């Protein structure tokens, strides 16, 4: 069965410093992995996706993630945090069974950005 | 282009009552999904429509939940009768194809008292 584990429920950084949000996945075959972000009172927005092409994936707003098969990880990074990055972030894997778009979510990581 | 819309944004009901949530997907999106997040838990899949057919309803918690998508456009999710543990945020998403990006609505916050 597919699953994802977000290793931190809460991350706090200062504005201008790097961001690292950690995610490990479990999959019996090559997974499709995503990072979504949810700002307060907004819907979930796709940041980036990995679908077995390049292992380093660039997303919107300066975020990127690296797929590391050997470590079963898909950590999200950004070189310099901005106040507007404060939100909840979700690591997600698509279920591999059948033609279903079923997404399996991690527990979420709340990113706090301090001035 | 309008995004995925959900109605209502909030609903507060008494235990035992019925509530119907509505989702309007992006125009032209055949695939529609329902997810929910119970407080303190992760977002969980409920079901997936392709047009008006249920492709995958493996996440529906029990028979108090009924999802429909008549005509393959908007969808409704009815909870009858509602229980306290049904409280949470219900998200709807849509996509052109099952393998494409899913676009999410803002969610409906359901509180059962």
Structural class of chain A: mainly beta
Task: Characterize the biggest β-sheet of chain A.
Answer: 6 strands, mixed
Envelope shape of chain A: globular
Most extensive interface: A-B, 23 and 28 residues
Q: What percentage of amino acids of chain B are in beta strands?
A: over 45%
Strand segment count of chain A: 12
Average pLDDT reading of chain A = 92
Q: Separation of termini of chain A?
A: 41 Å
How many beta-strand runs of chain B? 11
The ordered H/E elements of chain B are: EEEEEEEEEEE
Low-pLDDT runs of chain B: none
Q: Could you tell me the radius of gyration of chain A in angstroms?
A: 14 Å
Could you explain how this protein is built, in words?
The complex is a heterodimer of chains A (115) and B (113). Chain A is mostly beta strands. Chain A is built from no helices and twelve strands. Chain A has strands spanning 3-6, 10-14, 19-21, 23-26, 33-38, 44-50, 56-58, 64-68, 73-78, 87-94, 103-105, 109-114. Chain A starts with a strand and ends with a strand. In chain A, 36% of the residues are buried. By secondary structure, chain B is an all-beta fold. In chain B, the strands form two sheets. In chain B, strands 2, 4, 5, 6, 9, 10 and 11 form a seven-stranded mixed beta sheet that branches. Chain B has a four-stranded antiparallel beta sheet with strand order 1-3-8-7, with no helix packed on it. In chain B, β4 and β5 (43-50) form a beta hairpin.
Descriptors:
heterodimer; A: 115 residues; mainly beta; 6-stranded mixed sheet; 12 strands; globular; B: 113 residues; 7-stranded mixed sheet; 11 strands
Topology:
The complex is a heterodimer of chains A (115) and B (113).
Chain A: E1 3-6, E2 10-14, E3 19-21, E4 23-26, E5 33-38, E6 44-50, E7 56-58, E8 64-68, E9 73-78, E10 87-94, E11 103-105, E12 109-114
Parallel strand pairs in A: 2-12
Antiparallel strand pairs in A: 1-4, 3-9, 5-6, 5-10, 7-8, 8-9, 10-11, 10-12
Chain B: E1 5-7, E2 10-13, E3 19-24, E4 31-37, E5 43-50, E6 53-56, E7 65-68, E8 75-79, E9 88-95, E10 103-104, E11 108-112
Parallel strand pairs in B: 2-11
Antiparallel strand pairs in B: 1-3, 3-8, 4-5, 4-9, 5-6, 7-8, 9-10, 9-11
């Amino acid at each position: 069965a597919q699953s994802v584990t977000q290793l931190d429920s809460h991350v706090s950084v200062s504005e201008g410093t790097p961001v690292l949000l950690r995610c490990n996945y479990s999959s019996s075959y090559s997974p499709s992995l995503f990072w979504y972000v949810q700002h307060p009172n907004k819907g979930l927005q796709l940041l980036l996706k990995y679908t077995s092409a390049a292992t380093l994936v660039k997303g919107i707003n300066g975020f990127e993630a690296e797929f590391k098969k050997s470590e079963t990880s898909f950590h999200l990074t950004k070189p310099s945090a901005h106040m507007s990055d404060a939100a909840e972030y979700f690591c997600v894997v698509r279920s591999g069974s059948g033609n279903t778009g079923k997404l399996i979510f991690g527990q979420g990581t709340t990113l706090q950005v301090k001035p | 282009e309008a995004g995925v819309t959900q109605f209502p944004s909030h609903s507060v009901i008494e235990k035992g009552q019925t509530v119907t949530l509505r989702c309007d997907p992006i125009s032209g999106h055949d695939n529609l999904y329902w997810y929910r997040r119970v407080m303190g838990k992760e977002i969980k899949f409920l079901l997936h429509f392709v047009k008006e057919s249920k492709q995958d309803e493996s996440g529906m918690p029990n028979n108090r939940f009924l999802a429909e998508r008549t005509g393959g456009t908007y969808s409704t999710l009815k909870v009858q009768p509602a229980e306290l543990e049904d409280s949470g945020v219900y998200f709807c998403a849509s996509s052109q194809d099952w393998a494409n990006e899913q676009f999410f609505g803002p969610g409906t916050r359901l509180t059962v008292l």
